[in-house]
Design brief:
Elements: H1 13-18, H2 26-34, E1 44-48, H3 54-63, E2 66-71, H4 76-85, E3 92-96, E4 109-115, H5 127-132, E5 135-148, H6 174-184, E6 187-194, H7 198-209, H8 214-223, E7 228-237
Parallel strand pairs: 1-2, 1-4, 2-3, 4-5
Antiparallel strand pairs: 5-7, 6-7
Helix pairs in contact: 7-8
Bound molecules: S-adenosylmethionine.
């Protein structure tokens, strides 16, 4: 419960806890992210990397949108039960999908929302170009999750070393995301910022759901927001930019040719004799 997140505070803490699929409170992040987005009744929203689907139900209930609840690691069957129990089965559709190989038509979504998930695939330079294809021109793409308050250039700070793993190289600052998305040329970045006191919410949530995770709790406490925090970014697909069609095959026709060069005949120079 937190006054900072009035929408989330209406949900039963046991229900939120039972749908935990990562290290963050997905409703807090979804609430913060949607403060910077414009969602309304009937819009088609892709909740990309939705885990066990709490954020998808939140999006439906708070904004009356239709949600495609897509995730790779967690079963869509578990999500379906949660969605049904929340009375959302007519508007939230669980789907097993890899963000790198999405099974949707071009321009299908009004918005994509991704909670604490985008870092697993979205740091690829070409990923936004790929994802933007599924959003209508002018549609929104919003991400929120664990990240950095500033980039770490050089070795891992000593106070984070015990907790840090090589895979955390995917954590980035809001400024990094702004530049990354700006460079793509396919979207206009409206917002890229850091949650005020985000590290405190991160810590509070860790203490609530994983009080034995002392390594992470110690790292967050020692850091005190110097490097760790929550970041979000919201962009709109530029209507004036035509997106490349994805290349799935290049048609070619085989033409048989000899493997080796023909041998050259030795040239004779008789010098007129
Ligand atoms: C830290 S969990 C967050 C889950 C949920 N959004 C939340 O906030 O509780 C990261 C999620 O990203 C999803 N994910 C990672 N790589 C993915 C990919 N290539 N395609 C789709 N989802 C992916 C995982 O399945 C996982 O549920």
């Amino acid at each position: 419960m937190s006054e900072r997140f009035p929408r989330t505070s209406r949900y039963n803490p046991d229900w939120i806890r039972s749908s935990v699929s990562g290290g963050a409170n997905s409703l807090w992040l979804a609430e913060w992210l949607t403060e910077a987005m414009s969602l309304g009744p009937g819009m088609r929203v892709l909740d990309l990397g939705c885990g066990r689907g709490a954020s998808s139900i939140f999006l439906y209930r708070e904004f009356d949108v239709q949600v495609w609840a897509a995730d790779l690691w967690f079963s869509p069957d578990d999500r379906m039960e949660r969605i049904r129990d929340a009375g959302a089965e007519h508007a939230a559709f669980p789907i097993h999908a890899d963000a790198r190989s999405l099974p949707f038509a071009a321009g299908f979504f009004d918005a994509v929302v991704s909670i604490d998930s985008f870092v697993y695939y979205g740091t690829d330079d070409l990923y936004l170009n790929y994802l933007a294809r599924f959003v209508r021109p002018g549609g929104q793409i919003g991400i929120a999750g664990a990240g950095l308050t500033r980039e770490i250039d050089g070795p891992t700070p000593e106070h984070l070393a015990a907790w840090w793993e090589p895979s955390m190289a995917n954590l980035h600052s809001a400024e990094w995301w702004r530049r990354h998305w700006d460079r793509s040329g396919v979207a206009h970045v409206d917002v890229a910022d850091t949650m005020s006191d985000g590290w405190k919410y991160w810590l509070e949530w860790q203490r609530a759901i994983a009080p034995d995770n002392q390594v992470e709790i110690d790292a967050l406490t020692a850091d005190g927001g110097r490097h760790l925090g929550y970041v979000r970014a919201v962009a709109r697909r530029r209507p004036d930019v035509a997106l490349d069609e994805p290349i799935s095959s290049v048609p070619v026709t085989y033409v048989k040719r000899p493997l080796h060069r023909p041998r050259r005949r030795a040239q004779r120079f008789d010098a007129g004799m």
